Amino acid sequence: MKVVILAGGYGTRIGEETHLRPKPLIEIGDWPIICHIMSIYSKYGFHDFIICLGYKGYMIKEYFAHYFLHHSDVTFDFRNDNQVTFHNHNAAPWRVTLIDTGKDTGTGGRVKRIQKYVGEETFMLTYGDGLSNIDIEQLVKFHRTHKKLATITTTQPPGRFGALDIANGNTVRGFQEKPKGDGGWINAGFFVMEPGVLDYIAGDETVLEKEPLESLAKANQLMAFKHTGFWHPMDTLRDKNYLEELWKSGKGAWATSRI
């Protein structure tokens, strides 16, 4: 099953970083977030990726063009027509297809543009800026069980601010640093989709999260996979720093063995 990653947005809310590089190449530790995401899937045996490029997409192409080199020991023999020999590589077993889907294309339009690359097969889809310890195997199993056109992973994000438990008389009984929000479930990415979903996408201007998903819901063709574990987006510099702290402290719940 192929995994499609949306990696073409401008990332304006984290402009401190994205004026230099596309958002999926922003590093958590010394590893681009897109590689963290790919490793989540790779942990469950999914190694075939289609990456939808847009803003500064050439930089993502250049990164993967040199990926194998950067994850290998190498000998350059200039005495023998610059023969190159690789040793002890630790590159991931990935097959990566990079598709230019336009700078200003909507999220739905980007998926529509890679239609020929997924063909008539079930595929997975996610965003290039969200990390989770989601069980991909259970997600796929859930999708195959209900036999609808699409599955969307949902989660309850933490509240933005801490909460105080205040008793009568204004006595503080406790403090919860980041409680769950208002109890609502939000789109966490990590979709599974049948090719029939592409019929719900009109063209480049289509935003996946609007007409296509709304229409699928009205047609009773969209199911929610509820994820109650770790999930965190990288929307802002504050988010980036938070994920960086988790990674460095060894508390990154999404983390798999480094590939």
UniProtKB/TrEMBL annotation:
Pfam family, one: NTP_transferase
Record keyword Magnesium present: no
InterPro entries named among the record's database cross-references: G1P_cyt_trans (IPR046981), G1P_cyt_trans-like (IPR013446), NTP_transferase_dom (IPR005835), Nucleotide-diphossugar_trans (IPR029044)
Nucleotidyl transferase domain: residues covered: 2-215
Coiled coil: none
Source organism superkingdom: Bacteria
Alphabetic keyword roster: Nucleotidyltransferase, Transferase
Xref: NCBIfam families: G1P_cyt_trans (TIGR02623)
Protein name from the UniProt record: Glucose-1-phosphate cytidylyltransferase
Originating organism: Brevibacillus porteri
